[in-house]
């Protein structure tokens, strides 16, 4: 009886996570990677979601997943949003904090687990709450996390002016000013929603760590 309940609970948690990701217009391959559900099961969940909600509002993304690294650094705002999202990943245990010494670093959540997918959704939703008009799609956020975990093309560096961490292309060795400082100098801050760096995270003990958001609002 207990084994049956555990099995049912696990299936229910997978379906709930899949529906949560469908609401963010995630691709089938992304949902499969986080939940382990079959493509057929995901398609049926799409249909269920479309029936319960306005079908015209549901966009099922098709085609190739994002693969362009330049998307995250092509403009000052894009670089700011990417850096803020990377900080949220760190706060939710999906990335290692770059400023911590090796002795203080903790193991990140195992990739591919349900907890990994749930925390990714938490981090993405927290990031969305911090900005008035966020432009980062769920799929681009997923691609960014894969980049930061598996590739060195983007890495966190410290701004020489405000000491905040931001993402930078590893081939760009000339840039030493974070996007927050650039935005602060130009006065473009109207799309930043929160007045503090702490994010309204779902978990009461998890807040977005110090990022370029803090310096942008000084």
Major beta sheet, strand line-up: 1-2
User: Mind summarizing the main beta sheet?
Assistant: 2 strands, antiparallel
Q: Helix amount, in percent?
A: 40-55%
Q: What number of domains?
A: 2
Q: Which band does the percent of strand residues land in?
A: under 5%
SSE pattern, N- to C-terminal? HHHHHHEEHH
User: Low-confidence segments, ≥5 residues, pLDDT <50?
Assistant: 194-218
Q: What is the structural class?
A: mainly alpha
Question: Taking all residues together, what is the mean pLDDT?
Answer: 77
How many β-strand runs? 2
**Net shape:** elongated
Assembly of the depicted chains: single chain
Number of helices: 8
Cα-to-Cα separation, first versus last residue? 57 Å
């Amino acid at each position: 009886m207990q084994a049956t309940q555990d099995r049912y609970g696990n299936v229910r948690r997978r379906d709930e996570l899949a529906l949560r990701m469908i609401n963010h217009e995630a691709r089938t391959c992304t949902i499969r990677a986080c939940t382990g559900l079959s493509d057929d099961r995901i398609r049926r969940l799409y249909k269920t979601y479309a029936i319960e909600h306005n079908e015209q509002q549901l966009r099922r993304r098709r085609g190739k997943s994002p693969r362009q690294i330049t998307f995250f650094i092509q403009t000052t705002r894009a670089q700011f949003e990417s850096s803020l999202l990377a900080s949220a990943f760190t706060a939710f245990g999906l990335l290692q904090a770059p400023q911590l010494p090796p002795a203080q670093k903790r193991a990140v959540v195992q990739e591919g687990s349900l907890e990994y997918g749930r925390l990714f959704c938490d981090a993405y939703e927290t990031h969305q709450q911090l900005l008035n008009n966020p432009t980062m799609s769920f799929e681009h956020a997923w691609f960014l996390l894969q980049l930061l975990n598996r590739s060195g093309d983007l890495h966190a560096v410290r701004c020489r002016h405000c000491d905040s961490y931001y993402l930078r292309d590893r081939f760009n060795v000339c840039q030493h000013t974070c996007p927050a400082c650039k935005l602060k100098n130009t006065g473009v801050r109207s799309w930043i929603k929160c007045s503090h760096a702490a994010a309204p995270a779902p978990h009461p003990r998890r807040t977005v760590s110090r990022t370029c958001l803090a310096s942008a609002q000084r």
